[in-house]
Design goal:
4 strands; mainly alpha; 57% helix; 138 residues; 7 helices
Length: 138
């Protein structure tokens, strides 16, 4: 099953350079992923218009770091992945690195750096993937 993931906050300029247009919908297929956490990472990356590989690359540049935090938060919350496994998935050195992510995400949501609207949309998208995951993988 393909998912059409579109972030309405992602804008591109029109051909005349005047009016911003919504970016066209992009297709994400969770069957390309081996595990549910990978599917969640892929869905978040796709939502933000990037790839899983780019999302886990080292660096603290914005907005990539915030997008990575959002993915980590949702993977931890939905897939219940341990800090050790999450650190491995996100290509972070040690589980202690991940243990500091959750308070950081909460601070970013409170400050508006991570949109609560994005979290709600991603939860909805990922909820569909989770609901279909067990049936499709059995």
């Amino acid at each position: 099953m393909n998912y059409y993931i579109d972030n309405p906050n992602t804008l591109t300029m029109g051909s005349d350079g005047a009016a911003p247009l919504l970016q066209q919908e992009r297709v994400f297929n969770p069957h390309d992923c081996e595990t549910l956490p990978e599917a969640i990472l892929g869905a978040v990356a796709h939502y933000y218009g990037t790839t899983s590989l780019e999302l886990v690359q080292p660096g603290r540049d914005e907005p990539r770091a915030t997008q990575r935090l959002t993915a980590a938060y949702l993977i931890k919350k939905i897939a219940k992945l341990s800090n050790t496994k999450l650190a491995k998935l996100l290509q972070r050195g040690h589980a202690s690195t991940v243990s500091h992510l959750m308070p950081s995400v909460e601070r970013k949501v409170a400050s508006g750096k991570i949109s609560q609207e994005d979290i709600v949309r991603l939860n909805s998208i990922i909820g569909e993937i989770v609901n279909n995951w067990s049936y499709e993988r059995d």
